[in-house]
Specification:
By secondary structure, this protein is α/β, with parallel strands linked by helices. It has an 8-stranded parallel β-barrel, surrounded by 5 helices. The longest helix has 14 residues. The radius of gyration is 16 Å and the shape is globular. It starts with 10 loop residues before the first strand and ends with a helix. Bound molecules: cytidine-5'-monophosphate. Cytidine-5'-monophosphate binds next to strand 2, strand 8 and helix 9.
Amino acid sequence: MTTTNLKSDFVIVALDLPERESAIKMVDQLPEATFFKVGMELFFSAGIGILQDLRQRNKKIFLDLKIHDIPKTMEKAVRVLQSTPPDLLTLFCGEPGIRAVKSAITGDSPTRVLNVTVLTSEEESGSTRETVMERARLTCNAGGDGIVCSGWETSAVRSMPDVPPELIIVNPGVRMAENGSDDQKRIVTPLQAKQAGATHIVVGRPVTLASDPRGAFLRLLESF
Ligand code: C5P
């Protein structure tokens, strides 16, 4: 289980930046931040080395690649990643894919496997909540450790009888009152996410594009 003892572990800062140098600069500007997201943009540019850079700085890593392929291919890819294992890894798949990935992760690895449900950039529709709950159910059935969903569906997932209380729930689409929503649609504040039962939030632009990223991060920490 990812430790959430530190209040700062609740907030995962998304390093949605184009290359290693600017990403490291951002990490070093945020000494109080303990958990960082590496997504496709930075991973494609900087490779597995960026995970080593974060480890050397004692940071936790959320590797958000939303992996989806045939189970064997996913399993082999995740085996390679275990050379520098992330703390959280996202998939966007069904039960066979989750099972295959879990089989590539040994007991002493810190990697916890999360399944994406419905992207927070998508508008709410009549079926969003049901879809998120269904994906939470299949993730638990397959032995996944958690899900990514918006704060709008988090309390519904927490109230499902077949969802264990230790399920990790990561909410992107988080904004404070002072922020715009960018392309996110189903947004919540950090406090709303926490109260709904999220274990982590992912925050990118409100911190990384702020004129004072450290100040923005500290204000965010104070807000819940
Ligand atoms: O800049 P912003 O705070 O909107 O960034 C949110 C981050 O969370 C992005 O890195 C995005 O890829 C990620 N994310 C998301 N919705 C999901 C899964 C991940 O917005 N369902």
